[in-house]
Protein 1
Amino acid sequence: MKLLWNAVYTENRKLSRSPVLWGMLVFLLFVTGIRSGGADWNEHLGNMSFLFASVFGLMGFGTITAWVFGREYADRTVKDLLALPVSRTAIVIAKGLVIAGWCLASTLMIFGFSLLLGLLIGVPGFSWSMIMKQFGELLLIAVFHLLLCSPIALLASISRGYLVPIAYAFTTLMIALTAGPTALGAYLPWSIPALHLSMSGLTTFPLGKASYVILVLVFAVGALGTMSWWKRADHR
């Protein structure tokens, strides 16, 4: 356990000092600021949640994941990492924990920024119950997108870099935007977060239990595949 937490500490230092993390956060805050405002707080925060469900999660979380796993190959540090007295499984878990922690922290920062903007511009209809409902919904959407990050980690490991996983994230975003509003969207993992968000209103193609099972299966395949790849990384 101590070795695992040492690995988490090391991975956290790498990511927290990366311009990729802070550059992505500034970009997400900028876009949030542009989309701020609305007839009431429900619409104001709903705009921010929709950005998370449709774009921020896939591209923002995906880019961070691609960097954490792909940088080891791009910087040629993977051999040094594999030589450490830490299990490969622990390294993958440590990277996953750091990614999840910073993605959730970014979610909180953006939510807080959206609240501050709403207060500054005087959005009407403030209600603590509505704020907490929107906050809970946003956290759930963020968790859904974290589940979708595991295939990106696998692709970054297999391709030994950033380009393929980022291209994958962009492609899945395009698929989600085009096929999400159709009946097929309920079975496409990248469309499910946005469709779940719209479930609070009237949806033409509501989600069923199978949709959420698909999210878990995608995570399991990506996570197990990444661990398996790293266990054999020095043989490839």
Protein 2
Amino acid sequence: MNLDLSTLFGRGNAPLVGVDISTSSVRLVELAQGGKEGLRLERYATEPLPRGAVIDGNIENLDQVVDALRRVWKKSGTRAKLVALGMPPASVITKKITLPAGMSEDQLEVQVESEASQYIPFALDEVSLDFDVIGPSPASEDDVEVLLAASRREKVEDRVAIAEASGLKAAVMDIESYAARAALDRVLAQVPGGNAGQIVALFQIGAQVTHISVLLDGVAIYEREQPFGGNTLTQDIVRAYGLSYDEAEAKKKSGDLPDSYANDILAPFLESAALEVTRAIQFFYTSTPYTKVDQIYLAGGCALIPGLLDIVASRTKINSAVISPFKGMVLGPGVREQALRSEAPAYLVACGLALRRFG
């Protein structure tokens, strides 16, 4: 294969940390076994990225991202040198294909490359290509379903280079939406009945983009991205109070803003956010055979903005909750529970990447 990794669907093993490089920050999570089949959150940390370092999932300033990754690694206190990294969903083409069962790894590889050329709009020597055998085909017992994943090679190499320049090694490359779903699946498994037969909508509200995944019994039945995120609120604060972007971002998080903020700035943002969520649900209904959503989960850095959960639940009339990817985990000695509570929803992808340690 073209990837010098343990594959896009890499097999996790020895101490491995999940590293999520988003538009606004680099987040790190390290998990370990914690007693009877449980997990322990050993450590987690975040470092902000300068504006423009990452735009639409593209690394625009390698040095700034390397600096942030070095700082977050040092701040976390981890000694793990192997990292699981995420690719933005928009930069990875995935396709489920059916192939004859019983093929060797080499035969599969040849067949996958042959099939890939039909689906990938670039020359094969420009892409990093990988595959994972999902299991027997529901349509035929003589076939297997194989998930094919391909990304422009330079996008993969940028992330590998960032890890190497930080003194780390990229051991696993995953797709961010898959990592988020892995973290969500672990949390849903703790719900009585595991949400069996329920349609669950996950809204990851980031700085610039909201990623929507709708799942039925752990399988994605709909995915979409909408250009909406917390940067809108930060820009509104900048304009209203004459602050720099960094000052506005800090005050947004601390709540240190004038009394007029709640009505003049926050309320209209919350209305916009609720409109985006209801619009996304309507798109889901009109573009799929499904006519209901049973549960909404909010994640991402914006999930805990005061009032957001209430307005989403009120406007959609759907059960809504903010998700903590660390629910049910034992906390390591260095993890402060109170701080974690206010930050956890932003770590869904990093947590899902860290779970790759356990295969």
Protein 3
Amino acid sequence: MAPSSPRHAFVQGARDALPFTFVVSPFALLFGVVATEAGLNVVETLAFSIAVLAGASQFAALQLLTENAPTVIVLASALAVNLRMAMYSASLTPHLGEAPLWHRALAAYFIVDQSYALSIIKYERERLTLTERLAYFWGSVAPVCPMWYVMTLVGALAGTAIPESVPLDFAVPITFIALITPMLRTLAHVVAAVVSVALALGFAFLPYNLGLMVAGVGAMMAGAQTEVWMNRRRGAAQ
């Protein structure tokens, strides 16, 4: 049943996103700790999170910076990891494309894995007005992004005070498993996921995390080809 008002849609989005704060918090905390250990000060660490707002990309860039990788490699790797955001934007365009330019620009900054996953599932399941779609999107952002900033700051301030025995890094795989699993709805999705995992592991030996770039490109090609094959098969069956 669709929300009866934009306010209801916003509250529903915030409620749906709230569980993700339990994995975003240690993820952001870990980044704050790792960034300060790598030599960034508190202001630089917080600015990094505010400017990029993409955990996986931030960790990839930070690791390459600590390895003294060339700037071009750092930027290329960060962009490759964040390439999914462009696909997220394209996927949301049919639902939010009629919003004012300033609204779309602001929403583009706040598209993260959690806000995209929740929003696209909601939009595909229910018939909402544009105002309700926007309200739901901002509701899904409200608990997650501020928490990312706050916990990054906490991690940067805490620094080495957090014992190494505390397994903060568990948040990274759990976050992506929770996001990806509900979205594996077609054969193309499954093929892309399997290919990405296989290529990432197979090319893990490449320096500067270049294996991630290979995996990303290969997964998109595999998923696209699977879609083409499925469309041809459906066409032949008609």
Protein 4
Amino acid sequence: MAEIQHHNNEKNGVFEIYEDGVKAGEMTYTWAGTDKFIIDHTGVDEAFNGKGYAKQLVYAGVEYARKNGVKVIPLCPYAKATIAKNAELQDVLS
């Protein structure tokens, strides 16, 4: 079972995903003002490919945006494609 941890400060943040205590991947973002953040990178270690972890990270970012009433600018190609393919995620787009 994967576990997602979120670390955030006033400038940027990261969602990290762990499997059995081992970091499997991360999605990083940078704040653009106080009402939106830019997803700039999503990556999962090759050893964990095919488990859907990158998608889980994007969904975690979207949930965080919703809970905090902020918008998302997905500059990361993976995050941009994932949000484009899933209409239920598009309400957070800036």
